[in-house]
Amino acid sequence: MQPYRPEIRKPLGEADFEQLCANVYGAVFKDPLPSINGRSGQSQHGIDVLVRTRSERAVAIQCKRYDLKALTPEVLEEDIRKLDASTWDVGTLIFATTAERDTHLLQWTEELSSQRMAESKFAVQVEFWGDICNHICAHDSLRQQYAPTPDSITLAAFRDAQQRSDKTASRITSLIETLVEAQNGRRKNEEIYDEHGRMFVNAKRSYVLNRPIVNSQKLGPYAILLCITGMGIWFTCGTPFILHHPPYWFGFLGGLSMMMAGVMLIIVCYALRQRMPTLASPFDRGLLFEADARGDVYLTRIFASCPKCGSSMRYKFVGPLKGPLEPRLVCPRFDRAHSSVFDFTSMPDAGSDLPGR
Fold this sequence. Notes:
Keywords: Membrane, Transmembrane, Transmembrane helix. By secondary structure, the chain is α+β, with helices and mostly antiparallel strands. The protein has 8 helices and 12 strands.
């Protein structure tokens, strides 16, 4: 059974035939950029198309569109003489023609080519329309261009769609991998926070003095006594409510100062009984008072390593002195972005981690 061979129509004009030869012999010799030599009216020296090969010498194609008259050796010899007289360095001259196969012309060309090659000149070859059609059928790209069939069109469309689908799938896979990597990175960042939005940190305590400075339980009665004494002085000497005389300025200021100091000590003692870190100085907001279960008060500082950037974070009271003051772990590099509320109850009691204990 003969294989199906599509009918390939001959080009209608010389320019179309030259373009067909450029495409065909470019595919045959694997030259992606075959060149058409000159244009109509210019001297072409026997070359219509020039094809580069892997060897150093090029292949010249002379296009002969002959439908009504026969191609003769005299016509070929004229083009050969033109190319011999030119400066073109070619290895083979191919006469591509739309004429039907001529055995006598083919034999004459082979004999001439053998004679020329013996003289170290370029070879001569003739290819008829049937040979050109064979080249077209042997290359899928040429067959799709010059001899398309319904099956080949459908197959080509399917291949194009499959290639586009593969590219789209590859792009989607790449995007999914990027999103997964970003999500994994986000999860790693989210792992440093608990359900309340607080960072998991490994905080450590340092002591300004390696011993307690006072006992809050013993200090409490003295603070109450100081507050009552200051209140008495203020009412007695600083105001005209009790004694009918003008108020004394030292009584007013001294009594008020003692009373306010007593109130502050009462508040500090209450906070220390709850074992909450308390601000020790308005000038150094990282200096803290901490008390243990027995009420012993220590002067401390709390540090931690920032989970985001690795800097040394500091537990300090943030906000205006007039209040409200909020205790936070603050990163020195990114004080706003990396600061966080810290649960001090996760640390051991003050004094229990004192060096030497």
